[in-house]
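Hi R.,

Here are the chain sequences for the assembly we discussed:
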Amino acid sequence: MKTKRILLKSRPKGMPDESNFQLEEQELKGPENGELLLKALYISVDPYMRGRMSDAKSYVPPYELYKPITGGVVAEVLESRNDKYTTGDVVMGNLPWETYNISNGKGLTKVDPDVAPLSYHLGLLGMPGLTAYCGLLYIGDPKPGETVVVSGAAGAVGTVVGQIAKLKGCRVVGIAGSDDKIDFLTKELGFDEGINYKATDNIKEALEHACPDGVDVYFDNVGGPISDAVYSLLNKFARIAICGQIAYYNATSPPTGLRVEPILLKKSCLMKGFIVSDYADKFGDAAKDLVSWLREGKLQYEETITDGFENLPEAFLGLFKGENTGKQLVKVAEPSKK
Amino acid sequence: MKTKRILLKSRPKGMPDESNFQLEEQELKGPENGELLLKALYISVDPYMRGRMSDAKSYVPPYELYKPITGGVVAEVLESRNDKYTTGDVVMGNLPWETYNISNGKGLTKVDPDVAPLSYHLGLLGMPGLTAYCGLLYIGDPKPGETVVVSGAAGAVGTVVGQIAKLKGCRVVGIAGSDDKIDFLTKELGFDEGINYKATDNIKEALEHACPDGVDVYFDNVGGPISDAVYSLLNKFARIAICGQIAYYNATSPPTGLRVEPILLKKSCLMKGFIVSDYADKFGDAAKDLVSWLREGKLQYEETITDGFENLPEAFLGLFKGENTGKQLVKVAEPSKK
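And here is the predicted structure of the full complex:
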């Protein structure tokens, strides 16, 4: 049996392009005892993958050259020689960019096809949704009436953070990079205020206006000068969840700038970095809540689905052009049963 | 009745001196209904007071010019017109530098003279001890076998932090500014390692040697380059208690330097600023533990006591010359009963 796969051919300098990827075919053997044969249905493309394409150290290790890119995949079990799975199961996990794949089952979770569309398990009910839920609720711990600021607000994580904060009774302010995105946040998702940082001369002043009672929770996807502006408005006992620091992902030496420590001291603030896997023991609760909110119409979820395995690099590159709305995915195949 | 008092006469630039203080006498009236007449027994002098003498904003408001300095005082109730106190009670609180004082009783706590020497309530059982206990245990949360690093280790707070961390079964590394202090920490207080940062060319290398398993808890009294060196050794899920940032107390603009946020993200670390009053609801438990450890000989406590109210400025200024060992206090008067 043959599988198509997409390798990292070279490490990008600055913006990646098609030349960094290589499509090839390979003969697949197995499954052997304990293994599964998987067919990819949906594959996720996410901004954090850009970091893994460089060999700079980050919170996840870099991709290896000439090996398949890996990431979130929803797949169907075509054949099982593993007691925990049977043919026809749908699973989700961190898997290689391959149309077919042999797995030992480790790190996979079963997906209930009746809960939500299968693709949602790569977004709202997958890594971005769980990241938003766990970072906001377990670090940010927002209380009704508090002000929550989200940077990178129009992304797959930020859109969920803001909506959950609204469900918790907070005033929610989103920071993003275009007027269309701000319109989407405030008019479609119910954010109270949005700031287009690219169209604002003085982001601190814009934030002061949007946060008349200061900032109690800051969910940070970006770092840099946007964060510095938020820091100046932190209230006593504010909580800061550090989810991403995209401002520094391409830095070649340790980044310098405003020291946050004296601010944390003065205001008794908590700051915590995290990666979603830190909260693996909470995923059950988180998924239950996210599904309920989705079914009750309390959470909106947007996705852009590109068709065809070969289009993975193009879909990934599109993330950096800001053409997609909400979560960007690639559909590889239909499930066998339906 | 007359009281002596010491006012802030002028704000120091750089190192304070005697000319910043003014001693005067004043007529005292009262106590009226609900008030107490207090006689100061011991008055605390602490490094943080330097910050309050400037008008730069910090985590505590600046002292007012031509008003008495305030700080930790142990005092005896000479006369009470307040139901909660009777003549002969000993109390502790944040009080003005005055030999006699009228108080409405707010913010005072009663001191049990049988628990420990009265002066201990300004150190081990007072603000510095409670700061060490609450910051280390409620933020640092040290586990047996973990490595705890303390900066400003030979001070009234740092000495207690290190000893409690040892009681919790940790490897303890103290950073201080003289070989005598390092000897005191390692030979008298049981610290595993000490680093004299003034005698070390490469503090990062010295720390790597002292912390072969990395750093799990960092109790920070200083900030600046010492902290940067510690950050490079943080383990996954490390906790950092920001207690003081003396490196920046005299800064005239927001301090810049290494960004800690990407490090917190990469290692899923928690950083929390605090002031001891944040943990007021824990003081009961904390004092109970500190007293038990003291009685069982598990905690050592050193103090330097200067005699005479008039010598308060001199004792305070001595803190910055590093002449005292352990907690520096001034004894103002003997208790009436004994």
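The first strand of chain B starts at residue 2 and ends at 8. Chain B has a mean pLDDT of 93.

Let me know if anything looks off.

Best,
T.
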